[in-house]
Design a protein that fits this description.
Blueprint (H helix, E strand, L loop, with lengths): L4 E2 L6 E6 L4 H6 L3 H9 L9 E5 L5 E7 L10 H6 L4 E4 L6 H14 L15 E3 L6 H19 L7 H14 L3 E5 L2 H7 L1 H7 L7 E7 L6 E12 L8 H4 L7 H16 L4 E11 L11 E3 L5 E3 L7 H13 L5 E6 L3 H7 L4 E5 L2 H13 L4 E3 L17 E2 L8 H10 L8 E5 L3 E2 L9 E2 L4 H12 L3
Parallel strand pairs: 1-6, 2-4, 2-5, 5-6, 9-10, 9-13, 12-16, 13-17, 14-15
Antiparallel strand pairs: 3-4, 7-8, 8-10, 11-12, 14-17, 18-19
């Protein structure tokens, strides 16, 4: 990936972060023409606004960058998207070390472009490294987000289970991790019967991807990702407008893979296992049916109420496998339910947890990185909605209420007992353009979970 940063240079154009409150004081320390120009252009320092200040020769001498002091990560993101090619440097006089790091990450996220199918050939601006910023950390975070976004933005025609396995294989090779991509229909059917059922109608056979990295004896963290590369709904067919964005239904696997890459590149002191279930929920003569009964990896039987509730079937097998590693922590990511979007909207990551301390540990990094999360309850009183007359459970409640909660309760039966577990039900997509968060695939929850892992396992 091309870097959006350069070594410090005296020729760089200064980027001066301002807020509405700090603007008068900052301008008072600059040449009078800066204040005159800002007044002439009615610049007030509002977040997401820019003002190029010309020199006496007519060139750009500096850029006033309006930002929200409560969200420093997006300080330079708007500038990265709007400024012409050139080298810029951050005016760091009023910024602490954490704000400089956040601003650098935001600059990198603001430079993201998805250009696989349309190359604009527009040169992007570059930022001189701010003083004291850990360049390796910034580049790793930017690369992880770019990976997730690229995978989610890629149409299903070019990202089927075998392609997702290929992406994981490249990352495993880069960091010397062990990888196994189970791909034989018979082997999948024997070891992961629910995943086999979900992907059985597709011309692209499902894959189960397992990556292991880190030293023995370190705390074992298992990341699990739902990788439904396209979701037609199966025999419970989605309407056309419901299918339009279903290339993003592998967003959970993309986020897990991006987070796994970041963990490996930063060298966190843990033993990482990454489990991705990749399948296409297609329609055909081999499709699983409403009323079918599947037997999951742990022997639990599941009656199919709705073939469009396929993601939890895939995760069920993977969560059982996660428990076989005797983990210290299990985290899964999935674009699982529309009910979670109804509850918290599209820009907040809904999550469930079996460990209150774990849930509380997310709040700080989520706020610091403006990666919003919200906990929903694992309310056991709703378990009756998953009762089956002929099997251990059903895969979907037919009542229409508490859909995100019942999905999480379903998964809880397959997650390892007495092990801290986080389940993320995310959109994995930006419906609108915002600085550093372009419309399209998004690594929702990634920054918050990274902060949680670092505080839990790397605080010493």
């Amino acid at each position: 990936m091309e870097s959006h940063f350069v070594a410090s240079t005296d020729a760089a154009i200064s980027l001066v972060p301002v807020t509405t409150e700090s603007l008068p004081d900052i301008l008072s320390a600059r040449p009078e023409r800066w204040r005159n120009w800002a007044e002439h252009r009615d610049f007030e320092g509002r977040p997401g606004t820019l003002l190029r200040v010309p020199s006496v020769e007519g060139r750009t001498e500096g850029v006033l960058v309006g930002y929200d002091a409560a969200q420093p990560v997006w300080m330079l993101a708007h500038a990265a998207q709007r400024l012409e090619a050139g080298v810029y440097r951050l005016d760091e006089e009023r910024l602490g070390a954490e704000a400089r790091l956040s601003a650098a990450v935001g600059w990198g996220l603001g430079c993201y472009r998805f250009q696989r199918y349309r190359n604009t050939e527009r040169a992007l601006p570059r930022l001189a490294w701010p003083d004291g910023v850990d360049a390796r950390r910034v580049e790793a975070m930017v690369a992880a987000h770019a990976l997730v976004r690229d995978l989610i933005n890629t149409p299903a025609r070019d990202l089927m289970p075998e392609d997702l396995a290929g992406a994981a294989t490249e990352i495993a090779a880069e960091f010397g991790a062990e990888i196994e991509a189970l791909d034989g229909p018979g082997a999948i059917a024997d070891a992961y019967p629910c995943i086999h059922a979900v992907g059985s109608a597709s011309a692209h056979p499902p894959r189960v991807i397992e990556v292991n990295w880190g030293e023995a004896g370190q705390p074992r963290v298992v990341l699990v990702g739902k990788g439904v590369c396209f979701d037609s709904g199966g025999l419970n067919l989605k309407p056309g407008n419901g299918m339009r964005l279903m290339k993003k239904d592998m967003g959970g696997a993309a986020i897990a893979l991006g987070l796994g890459r970041l963990i490996m590149e930063l060298g966190l002191p843990l033993r990482l296992t990454l489990l991705l279930g990749a399948a296409e929920n297609a329609v055909g003569s081999r499709s699983f049916r409403p009323g079918d009964v599947l037997t999951a990896r742990n022997g639990k039987t599941v009656e199919i109420d709705n073939t469009d509730a396929e993601g939890r079937l895939l995760l069920a097998d993977l969560l059982v496998r996660a428990g076989e590693f005797d983990p210290d922590l299990v985290i899964d990511f999935a674009t699982l339910t529309g009910a979670a979007r109804v509850a918290v909207g599209t820009e907040i990551s809904a999550f469930f947890s079996t460990d209150p301390d774990l849930a509380r540990g997310l709040i700080g990094p989520a706020e610091a990185w403006d990666d919003p999360v919200w906990e929903l309850p694992l309310h056991e009183g709703y378990r009756h909605m998953l009762k089956s007359d002929i099997a251990d459970t059903v895969n979907s409640s037919s009542g229409g209420f508490a859909g995100a909660i019942t999905a999480a309760l379903f998964l809880k039966d397959f997650a390892p007992q007495d092990v801290p577990w986080l389940h993320f039900d995310v959109m994995a997509w930006n419906n609108r353009n915002r600085p550093g968060r372009p419309k399209g695939g998004e690594a929702m929850g990634l920054r918050a979970v990274l902060g949680l892992l670092e505080s839990r396992f790397a605080s010493g």
